[in-house]
Amino acid sequence: MDGIEVRCKLAWPGFTLDVDLTLPGNGVTALFGHSGSGKTTLLRCLAGLERAQPGRVVFKGQTWQDEKTWRPTHQRPIGYVFQEASLFAHLNVLDNLRFGQKRSGSSGRVSLDAAIELLGIGHLLERKPDALSGGERQRVGIARALAVGPEILLMDEPLAALDLKRKQEILPYLERLHDELEIPVIYVSHSPEEVARLADHIVALDGGRVIAHGPLAETLARIDLPIRLGEDAGVVLDACVGAIDEAWHLARVDFPGGSLWTRDNGLPAGRRVRVRVLARDVSLAIGDTGPSSIQNCLDGRVESLAADDHPGLLLVRVAVGDSLLVARLTRRSADQLGIAPGLPVRVQVKSVALME
Ligand SMILES: Nc1ncnc2c1ncn2[C@@H]1O[C@H](COP(=O)(O)OP(=O)(O)OP(=O)(O)O)[C@@H](O)[C@H]1O
C-alpha cells in the first residue's frame, strides 16, 4: 500500500511505452535512460498528462487510474517541476508562489514558508522573474511545486536547461530536498552525476521498457545488467567523512565495510557523502601485496563474474563488508589468479570520486 503502482501501455508511431512496476513510496527515484527512452512519457502518465491504455496508477492505495477511474491532473496531489520554470512575468516571486498555492486550494504538508526556506529563496521574494538567474528561477519553480503541498514531487530534468555553473549551484538544494522532504520524488534525468548524487532508487529505461530497477547501490552493483551510470560500470556508496589528514591533504571516508582515502576537498569530518568507485579503478590481488602506491586496500570476497563489453575483459563483483564493489580485470589475469566466487581477495582502489 505504501508504493506507487504503475502499469502503462502507450503506443505512438515508432515508440511504445510498456511499463509495469511498483515505485517506492519514499526517497528519490531516478528515471534514467537515453534520450527518447520514455522517461518523460512515464512521468506524464503518473501526472495524468498522458492517458495510457491500458493504464493503472495507484498511489499509496489511492487509485488515480484504472479501467473505471481517471483522476485528471488537478485532482492528483502532485507537484510538477519542468525543465524550465514558467513564472508569471508580472508577478513577483512571492505572488508567483501564492498563485500556485491558491489554485490548488492547498494547505498541504510542505508549507509555503518551508518551501521558501528549503530552496533558499527568502531574499528573492520581491523580485520579478526577469531579475532572476536561471538557477534562481528554477529554485522558485521547485518551491512553487512544493508550496501546493503535494504528496509526491515529479521532476522532469530540472537542471537540463542550466549551464554547468548553475547546475552546481542548485544541486545542493536538491540534496536538501533529498534529505529533508518526506514525500517521494520521481526525478527524470539522463545525467549520471545527478543520479549518483541524488537517487536512492533507479529505474533504467530503454526503448520504452524497464531494463532494471531497484535500490541505487544494489542495482549498479549488478554486473549481469547492461546499465551503466556514464561511461563505465561502477558503484555508488553511502559514506561519511571519518577523518582528515591535514598534513597530506587527504580525507578518509568510511562506508559500511571499510574506509577509503581520497583528496581532501574541505568537507568536515562527520559529513555524509556519496562516493563513486568505477570498475576501472578497482583491481584485485591474492594475499599480501607488499608495498604499493595504491593506499586503499580492502579485504573482500568474490561474489560473481560476468562478461564485460570486450572479450578480453571481465567484471567481478566483490563484497567488502556490507558493501559491494565492481572490479574490471582482464580474463587472463582472472584466470591466472584463479578468481572464482567465494575467493578471499585484496581489493585495491586506485581512485574515488567524492560527491558532496
Ligand atoms: N505526443 C507524442 N506523440 C508521438 N510521439 C511522442 C509524443 N511524445 C513523445 N513521443 C515520442 O516518444 C518517445 C519517448 O519520448 P520521451 O520524451 O518520453 O523520452 P525521454 O526519455 O524523456 O527523452 P529526453 O531525455 O530526450 O527528454 C520519443 O521517441 C518521442 O519522440
From TrEMBL:
UniProt-listed SUPFAM superfamilies: MOP-like, P-loop containing nucleoside triphosphate hydrolases
Pfam families named in the record: ABC_tran (PF00005), TOBE (PF03459)
InterPro entries listed in its UniProt record: AAA+_ATPase, ABC_transporter-like_ATP-bd, ABC_transporter-like_CS, Mo/tungstate-bd_C_term_dom, ModC_ABC_ATP-bd, Molybdenum_import_ModC, Mop_domain, P-loop_NTPase
Domain ABC transporter: 1-232
Keyword Membrane tagged: yes
Domain of life: Bacteria
Domain Mop: 291-356
PROSITE patterns noted in UniProt: ABC_TRANSPORTER_1 (PS00211), ABC_TRANSPORTER_2 (PS50893), MOP (PS51866)
Record keyword Chloroplast present: no
Protein keywords: ATP-binding, Cell inner membrane, Cell membrane, Membrane, Molybdenum, Nucleotide-binding, Translocase, Transport
Gene3D superfamilies membership: 2.40.50.100, P-loop containing nucleotide triphosphate hydrolases
Example GO molecular function: ATP binding
Protein name in the entry: Molybdenum ABC transporter ATP-binding protein
Protein encoded by which gene: modC
